Amino acid sequence: MQRHSKRFLTILAVKASYHGGRPTEGLLVGNHLGYLDILLLGAHSPLVFISKAEVARWPLFGFFIRLAGTLFIRREQRTDVVRIAREMAGAIESGTVLAFFPEGTSSDGAQVLPFHAALFAPAIDHQWPVTPAAIGYRLEPGEGNAASDVAYWGDMTFGPHLFRLLSKSRIEATVRYGVQEAPGNNRRELAARLHDRVSALKMFD
Hints:
By secondary structure, the chain is an alpha/beta fold. It is 37% helix and 19% strand. The protein contains 8 helices and 7 strands, in the order H-E-E-H-E-H-E-H-E-H-E-H-H-E-H. The chain has helices at 2-11, 36-44, 61-67, 80-93, 121-126, 146-149, 158-166, 187-202, and strands at 14-19, 27-30, 48-52, 71-73, 98-100, 130-139, 171-177. Strands 1-7-6-2-5-3-4 form a 7-stranded mixed β-sheet, sandwiched between helices. Helix 1 (2-11) crosses helix 2 (36-44).
């Protein structure tokens, strides 16, 4: 996935910059602006992602992330969190870093949406370290607005959005990693704390 993510970023004219120490264990969590986030993070370090199940059916991109070993969660089934927790444990015990976006949806990036706490429960149970990260995008002057032309959110459709991305001469992407930290013993407190960390990192976009 890392190799192919780099190739896709090149095709999409994405110039990526990374700041801070990338995680080598545990969980990586960040804000979510769209499918480009997965390529951006995946190009920098070996990761397995947790994603909503419907992404697996997306044209082209769904095929790619299925090959990457993504763990898919069925959000409409509340009990599916139990299954995902088992799969998370297996992945992390094998030395894999797991990445997910606790907002549960993507946004235009104006602010970091509240973090859902459910997927933090396994981190509490197993005391996995967690690393926050903030993602941001910029376009060249006159090339549009990153919130509407790079971020993928709301009722946007994949085909037209990808076409807009391909029309850009350059997309500047930034990832800022925060300091890895212990999870503590309360998933809601952990979710709130990491939301604060990601929001603070994003202030420097």
